[in-house]
Amino acid sequence: DAGVIQSPRHEVTEMGQEVTLRCKPISGHNSLFWYRQTMMRGLELLIYFNNNVPIDDSGMPEDRFSAKMPNASFSTLKIQPSEPRDSAVYFCASSRGPEAVYEQYFGPGTRLTVT
Amino acid sequence: TQLLEQSPQFLSIQEGENLTVYCNSSSVFSSLQWYRQEPGEGPVLLVTVVTGGEVKKLKRLTFQFGDARKDSSLHITAAQPGDTGLYLCAGNTGNQFYFGTGTSLTVIP
């Protein structure tokens, strides 16, 4: 079975540009999570969807970040405009939910570098 | 401040040694998970514990959930180089979910 799929795996962009990260969760999973990981701050939860509806977006840093889940098999995380401090590895994860919502399966991540 | 504090932050040991990693909080968790992350990859779920005092074993790994559900430990027996990685605990309190600060383990052959 295919795991969580993320694209691109690497993204290098200039400050001010728009960045869109993509995620395809595991088929049949009802919950989807977006995380950011840095050496300084560790793994931070940005936003969490359940049945395509955002449940908790309190971790989204600021208005420059937005996330959508138009259907059960696709989600995007957009940064506009991007800044150097957004450089990090961004992970998408999915889970079966609700009884196992926190047992998450992670994708390989997107390494974002903003210059 | 981090809700889930892990210790030690870094650990380097020789192959064959035993080790314990701790995950502590002042909050009560409904469930707690342990993940292992290897360089360049996403975290991989190892175990979930939900009952205070619960002990689970996964080959050479033993996981324990504290009686009060505020802390957890991971014990590895006879560590092997393949155990090298970042170990993360994670837990939920109601609808809030948190990852721990992480323990980076290196097992030297």
Number of strands of chain B: 11
Helix content of chain A: under 10%
Oligomer: heterodimer
Order of helices and strands of chain B: EEEEEEEEEEE
Order of helices and strands of chain A: EEEEEEEEEEE
Question: Any idea what the shape of chain A is?
Answer: globular
Q: Specify the structural class of chain A.
A: mainly beta
Percentage of β-strand residues of chain A = over 45%
Discrete helix count of chain B:
0
Average per-residue pLDDT of chain B, rounded, comes to 93
Report the total helices of chain A.
0
Mean pLDDT score of chain A, rounded? 93
* Uncertain stretches of chain A: none
Major sheet description of chain A: 7 strands, mixed
Overall spatial form of chain B: globular
Kindly list the characteristics that best describe this protein:
heterodimer, A: 115 residues, mainly beta, seven-stranded mixed β-sheet, four-stranded antiparallel β-sheet, 0% helix, 54% strand, globular, B: 109 residues, six-stranded mixed β-sheet, five-stranded antiparallel β-sheet, 11 strands
Brief write-up:
Chain A has 115 residues and is mainly β.
How is this structure best described in words?
The complex is a heterodimer of chains A (115) and B (109). Helices cover 0% and strands 54% of the residues of chain A. With 115 residues, chain A is an all-beta fold. By secondary structure, chain B is mainly beta. Chain B has no helices and eleven strands. In chain B, the strands form two sheets. In chain B, strands 2, 4, 5, 9, 10 and 11 form a six-stranded mixed beta sheet that branches. Chain B has a five-stranded antiparallel beta sheet with strand order 1-3-8-7-6, with no helix packed on it. In chain B, a hairpin with a 6-residue loop joins β4 and β5. The model of chain B has no long low-confidence stretch (mean pLDDT 93). Classes of the chains: A mainly beta (115), B mainly beta (109). The interface between A and B is medium-sized, with 20 and 22 residues.
